[in-house]
């Protein structure tokens, strides 16, 4: 992962330049991209204390899903979309990587609809702290979502339409339980860079290598640890998994080139692997034997999860990678890169990827498969989430199109819901989609 301060400032400057795309553009729609809100206040609060959400029924009647009043602006949605496609600057660590990656890309059929729009909740403000790290939204059921909002981890119930704070890291956070190796003094003003939530465990990773673990069914913090005191310590990704014996573990990927496995039954570090470059993301295979390693190197690796030894390098990407995911069958997996592509791999032949999928604007920063393996979703840094039909060989896709930086995406474990966090000063929100079902057998009842 890039050096934060210098590269982030440059990226922010590039994004701010985009505000001047049209001198005639209404002020209401200016100053939005990469300019996160300082509060949960919205322009509609002062009128009726209710932020204007968008329902599926309203969207069917023609309302913009984000509530953007295009009829009051001096630019159409189509024109603004075209301008974004032309002017959005993709961040690259290796210059022109996005230009060189297009020749191998699969031509897909767009226009499919696997997930239908359900609700845009603008009262839920999803935020991003590091521009390259976008794994800050996690669904534990079709109605329950956890996400970062400034210094808070929030829970949102799409059923009750209510949010509440789960963890606040703006002040001092310390464990309420005693475990060997836990930092009882805790942390102060943690900057959360990444998040993972699975079942009842929440793990937040920080800029200084902090790890904060909380059991959602218990009060207080369960465990705190600092992975490293290295100057380049940021926690880039966390993955929670359950071993074949039923033990809960998580893997932390860090900028100090380390990958660490923690046993949450014993609250102890169980494995540590060191690599030659910063690790931005890891994914454990369904059988627990193989680990995808991607980071600050165009080539990724498939390694033995017990020893950390390389099984096979992954050649093909042209820039640094920040996303990976296994298909539930344990045979294929995906990696996402700043060269604007997602590559699909087959463990039976890793000499080259079996498919290359291209984004519209920029890097592929988050990848998720549904638990039944039928669909794969990949998120660009802004504006686009692509949902692919895996059975079609990734030939058919649904393209979800909106405006704003993407903080993360998550399928619910039962595959029924898809949630997308949108970070934007005015139109920041949580988008909710529901899986489209064909209940043709009900036709006989009509």
UniProtKB/TrEMBL annotation:
Q: Mark the WD repeats by their residue spans.
A: 314-355
Q: Which species is listed as the source?
A: Theobroma cacao
| Name of the protein this chain belongs to | Transducin/WD40 repeat-like superfamily protein
Q: Which UniProt keywords apply?
A: WD repeat
Carries keyword Lyase? Answer: no
Please indicate which superkingdom the organism of origin belongs to.
Eukaryota
What the entry lists under InterPro entries is as follows: WD40/YVTN_repeat-like_dom_sf, WD40_repeat_dom_sf, WD40_rpt
């Amino acid at each position: 992962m890039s050096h934060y301060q210098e590269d982030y400032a440059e990226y922010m400057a590039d994004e701010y330049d985009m505000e001047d795309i049209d001198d005639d553009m209404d002020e209401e729609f200016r100053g939005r991209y990469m300019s996160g809100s300082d509060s949960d206040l919205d322009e509609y609060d002062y009128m009726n204390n209710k932020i204007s959400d968008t329902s599926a029924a309203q969207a069917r009647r023609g309302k913009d899903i984000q509530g953007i009043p295009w009829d009051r602006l001096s630019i159409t949605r189509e024109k603004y979309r075209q301008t974004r496609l032309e002017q959005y600057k993709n961040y690259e660590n290796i210059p022109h990587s996005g230009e060189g990656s297009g020749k191998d890309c699969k031509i897909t059929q767009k226009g499919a609809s696997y997930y239908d729009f359900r609700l845009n909740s603008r009262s839920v403000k999803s935020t991003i702290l590091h521009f390259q790290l976008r794994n800050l939204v996690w669904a534990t059921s079709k109605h329950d979502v956890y996400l970062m909002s400034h210094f808070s981890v929030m829970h949102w119930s799409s059923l009750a339409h209510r949010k509440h704070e789960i963890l606040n890291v703006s002040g001092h956070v310390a464990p309420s339980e005693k475990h060997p190796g836990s930092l009882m003094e805790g942390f102060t003003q943690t900057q959360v860079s990444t998040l993972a939530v699975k079942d009842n465990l929440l793990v937040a990773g920080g800029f200084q290598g902090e790890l904060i673990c909380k059991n959602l069914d218990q009060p207080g913090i369960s465990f705190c640890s600092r992975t490293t005191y290295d100057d380049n310590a940021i926690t880039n990704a966390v993955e929670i998994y359950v071993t074949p014996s039923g033990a809960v573990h998580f893997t932390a990927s860090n900028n100090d080139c380390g990958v660490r496995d923690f046993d949450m039954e014993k609250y102890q570090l169980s494995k540590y692997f060191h690599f030659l470059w910063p690790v931005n993301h890891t994914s454990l295979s369904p059988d627990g034997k193989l680990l995808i390693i991607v980071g600050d190197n165009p080539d990724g690796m498939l390694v033995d999860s017990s020893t950390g030894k390389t099984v096979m390098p992954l050649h093909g990407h042209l820039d640094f990678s920040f996303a990976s995911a296994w298909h539930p069958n344990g045979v294929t997996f995906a990696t996402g890169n700043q060269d604007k592509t997602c590559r699909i791999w087959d463990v039976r032949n890793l000499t080259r990827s079996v498919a290359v999928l291209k984004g519209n604007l920029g890097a592929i920063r988050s990848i998720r498969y549904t638990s039944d393996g039928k669909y794969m979703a990949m998120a660009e840094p802004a504006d686009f989430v692509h949902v692919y039909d895996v059975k079609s060989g990734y030939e058919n896709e649904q393209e979800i199109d909106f405006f704003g930086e993407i903080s993360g995406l998550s399928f619910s474990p039962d595959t029924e819901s898809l949630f997308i966090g949108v970070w934007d000063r005015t139109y920041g929100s949580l988008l909710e989609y529901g899986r489209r079902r064909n209940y043709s057998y009900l036709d006989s009842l009509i």
